[in-house]
Amino acid sequence: MSNVSAAEPESVAQPPHHDNGDGDEDGSGGDSSEEEDGEEEDEVDKESSESDDSADEANAAEIKSLRQMLQENPTDYEAHMRLISLLKMDADLKGVQQARQILSQLTPLPSEFWCEWIDDEERLARTPQELLDVRQLCERALEDGLSVPLWVRFAQISVRIHLPHLAQDDDGATDSAEFTSFDSRSIDAARADVERAITACGMHLAEGGAVWDVLERLETALLRSATSASPAQHEQTQRVRAVFKRRLAISHLDLEATHARYLAWEQHADAAGEQGAEAVRAKAAAAFEEAVAAMQQRRRAEMRVAAAQRSAGAPDPWASDGGGEWEAWEQYLELEGDRDPWRTRLLYERMLAPRLPTDAATPLCYQPWLWSRYIRFLGDSLPGAKLEGQVCARAIRFCPSDATLRICRLRALEAEGAAATAVQAEFEHALSATLARDESEAQAIHAPLDGAATYANDYVRLLHAYSHYQRRRLASAISHGAAGHVAGTGDASVTAAGAATATAAAAAKAAAAETLASVRAARDAVLAYEAAYLSVADADGGLV
What is the value of pTM for the model shown? Predict the structure, then answer.
């Protein structure tokens, strides 16, 4: 060994890793080791590449299998979600968007699905138009039902669209360092969208604070951006104080934390020289005490509902009668009573929010009797054709086989003043659906809105409801036509106004004739159906 070193002194400078492990430092062993290491790395890379190729082939095969499965059973939610997951793994963005679009058109979806979709689209959005598309996606998601996380996203995206210089991070903190001037129209637009979210779910006892957070951060960010000691700063200070006052007057589970934050903000405002708000502070304190008392009354009901929902169909440990989720909600409704119909409406919206059916239980949103009860409540406490029409449309998405809800939808369209073609399209869509009677105990307890439901075939009920609608159309058209005819008769020397009246009378007569034709068509359809099926559907002749 020493002889080799003496004969070749330059080899002494060789790095230690050239040692072959047996004391041989002639360098040949090191070269061999490097070659072996390179070959091993090549083999690992080859195996990894083959593994990736194999995984890609397996994913492609599974994607093809899932698509075939969904053609045969389009309502298989788990298959849809698995397909979306595989497409995301393949980075097939268009495929993911298409799969989500198809699923969203088939059935109402829970908020978790929509939130994941919206978050993905928002991360990809780079232009104002793309952000507007994400906002429109939020609007679509909210049509399925109430969801506080969705409303929060809607409000945050709206702020990002109208006031991009007030960007919010993942924790909701707002950075206004680059905001140097007020744009009143953009600010008003952002506020209007945030107020929409607060109107929809600001009274949600457990989660409503999240939408108030968006408004609070928006207003405080605008305050920080205002010029110091300016009229704009004073005005914005009053606006922030008003937001706190409104928020502290509404029952939420996070009232104490909000109140502590408000007191800290007031101390900062005093230090900044904003005086003279003692009366506002006193009113805010009084409202806070009342809201805390109301929150304490409702807290137990919230705990019952949360426990029942977590149990997923198992007996509710909080209910005194050992019932489930509906029993917990019913106790909550009794607690609210008729003091505030808007708060009661929020309870209905919460219990009818989209959830997926499980083997353990069917969610309340798929119970037709509960939708009928909600619609009846709206008619009694919050009458409004538009609101009732929206609820009826949602009810049909969840319960498309219920004839009572279908008839409610026809009546709501008529009350809204919808065109006859729209009512006819809804009627024909209802006739093409597979109708099935809900024989549940709750359906027997809560009578349907239509009295004929106890004895009439569901399709006959639809035909009769549409026929009655056409008869009302005809009566209205005839009355307008007769009025026009009377107004159009008289002195032969008619004026220009008289000629216009005559033209209107002629148009009314034509409309009456068209209505009469559609009424006769509806009558013929009813008679044809009765001739074919009434002997079975109404053996006693009660409808005749």
Answer: 0.80
